[in-house]
UniProtKB/TrEMBL annotation:
Keyword rRNA-binding in record: no
SUPFAM superfamilies, A to Z: DHH phosphoesterases (SSF64182)
GO molecular function: hydrolase activity
Domain RecJ OB intervals: 62-164
Native source species: Leptospira alstonii serovar Pingchang str. 80-412
Domain of life: Bacteria
This protein's name: RecJ OB domain-containing protein
Keywords: Hydrolase
The keyword Transmembrane helix is assigned to this record: no
A Pfam family that the UniProt record links to this protein: RecJ_OB
Amino acid sequence: MNPLKKAESIFFQFGGHKEAGGFSLEIDKIPELAKVIFEHADSWLEEEQKQAILEQTPSLISLQPEELNPKIFQELSVFEPFGHENPVPLYSIKNAKVYHTKPMTDGKHVRFRILGAPESIQCLIWNRGKDFLELLSKAESLDLWGSLEESTFRSKTSLQFVVNYFQES
């Protein structure tokens, strides 16, 4: 809804709520709407990404790398099931020292480790591997936000830290 407020003056009907919105406009106003959308799209997307993290803040848990372990995963599993009204806990790790990076699928995804975390914990970035590796090449340490998940492969279950958001420390 908020992005459309920039174009509110061109609509003859406009409204909605956080989960849905609607508007009506004259057909000759479509180019004007497109102009507003294209002018603000990048900043809207960036703001949406930041807002998504802020909305998760009630479930934000700051951890040290060594705390990424099965015990914390088990302790928080009592709050399941997770969903819209009960989001999956979001963990933050500040000043993470990343090593042993392994690009997957031509760099689209990356597997890596964090200094101080148990060796059994795999860390993963899905779909933003190139951005992650580029930032990592310039930064000494990173702030990471993500979730702990169980993964079963070839009858072996392990814990992985799936990173949703990252930035230079």
